[in-house]
Structures are given as structure tokens and as C-alpha cells.
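Sequence only, no structure available. Ideas?
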Amino acid sequence: MKLLVFSDIHSDLRALEKLMAIEADYYFAAGDLVSWARGLDKAGPILAKRAGRVWVLSGNHESPASITAFCAQYGLEDFHGKTLRIGDWNVAGLGCSAPTPFNTPGEYGESEFRERLAPFAGLSPLILICHSPPHNSRLDCAGPGQHFGSHAIGEFIQAEQPAWFFCGHIHEAEGVKETFGATSGVNVGKRGYLLDLATV
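Reply:
I predicted one. C-alpha cells follow.
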């Protein structure tokens, strides 16, 4: 069973086409398909080629409501704040980012992140997919001393130790991997990460 997780396409339709050409059983778009919620109508038909196998999170550039409507229009699955059972695995998703200086459409405060992560506590084994990385981690490094991730997500990872954690948001950390105790973390970016559950 293969899961392809990717993020931060930002209207790079060629990159999205390449991702959809990869054979996987499940496709998870972890936010920021576009910028400032513009151009979803162009991304939709590409994702719709894999309809029934595509789960979508809002990034900070899309509001959760816009992604709900987008998924309904193109036959995709809205994954924000939801869980999915794949064999013995629990997969949970949470979109949006911590507040940015740009006041983008999909931003949460830390208290809201904690509230929305709470239903995922106790799920095991767990694969957690968020748009935002944990604050002050390698997955969250935009430059020396520059960190914009979520404290609440970091706290959840430390407490719950999901087997896998995937995120995006910080473009400079694309492809970076980091372990948090028993958790393997990856900032997937638009190149994506293919997880084969048969080998883990």
C-alpha cells in the first residue's frame, strides 16, 4: 500500500502533473496547491484524474471552507481535521499554518491547533499529515534562526509519537528529514514523498 504525500505546489501545474503520474494507492495534498486561493480551478482537473484516491488539506493559502468546496466540485476528499484507516494504520490530517505576517486565508492560533489535534490523541499506529511543521525543528528552518511552524504540532508529536509525520509550508526545508523520538518526520514539498507501508 503506497501513500504519496506532497505540499506547496503553488500553481506549478507541471509539478502536479508529474505527481499524479506516480502510481500510488492514496494521494495526500498537504496544502498550498495555489497562492492566495487563486487557480484552484486549474489544479482541480489534474487531481480529478485520481479521484477517489486524493485527500486534500488546506494550506495557509487556502481556507478550510475553500478546500471543502473544491473537493466537492472535483470528486476529491476533504481531509482537514479528519482520519482515515488504511489497513492497520491510522492516517490523520490537519491543514492551515501558524499566523504569518501576510494574513493568509488559512491560519490558526496555537490554541486552535491544540483543540483540533486533540481528537487524534491515542491513535496508534499513526501517520500524521499537517501543512505546518513543528516549530523550531529542521523541518521548520527557513534560514538561520527563522522558524514559523506550530508549537502545538511539536507538542503533539512529542507526546503521541506518531510513526510518521509529514508537512510542508517551509519551502527552504523541502526534502529535509528529522526524527522526533520514535517519529520519522519529512517536509515533503512539491517533490513529494512516497511511503510504502509494506516496507515499514
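The longest helix spans residues 64-74.
Hope that gets you unstuck.
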